[in-house]
Amino acid sequence: MRGILIAGNESALLNYLGAEAARRSESYALAVIKNRLSGGNQIIDNTEINGSKSLVSIEWNPYSPISAGTLVLAAENTLDNISEAILVCNPPSVRCAAAEIKIVDVETLVNDHIKGWFYLIKELACKFREKGDGTLVLVFPEYAAAGKDDIADHLGTAALASFKALTLGLLSASSSEPYLTMGFSGVCAGDEAGFASFIFKQIDEKNRRNDGKLHKYGKTGFFR
Prior knowledge:
The protein has 6 helices and 7 strands. It has 224 residues and is of the alpha/beta class. The protein has one domain: Rossmann fold. It has a 7-stranded parallel beta sheet, sandwiched between helices.
């Protein structure tokens, strides 16, 4: 039985990945990082997720390593098997001058959008290694560089850079693992549905040649 776990912060991309998962499995598990950053202002369309009868929502506190283990265990118990874990780093923006950065936002960023991914990936890697099978999928968007008159998003950029570095490291070491590791990046603003469909198309192929490969969607640019 196919068991799909999707984890990430609230975003349109996460919603469309959930919709794709619902088409492929009787049920899938979703763990959402809530937006705890003070300046986050994403507008999210939850129609795809909330309208899915196959969705099983699992609580996750990314800042807790214990919660990461509990999440994996809960997903496995609910789905009977985790065949694919899709992790999506698409953090909310906090645009402000460097002097105006709030300490509480720095702590939240590190705990939720950097440390949390290390905790969860460790648990999933241990589980897939133990089974000798599985697919670990890491997804992040890329953005064009901000113009000289734009307000910088120091926090979101830092989280994406960390996740990208972690992804590249995992991809380079994938040949020594019994499970598949795949990466996806792309410029998807306004085309989240197409990006989600592209991701699942590559996963569905179950091609060993995709192991350790970073797939790029659309015209990729620089971080915002």
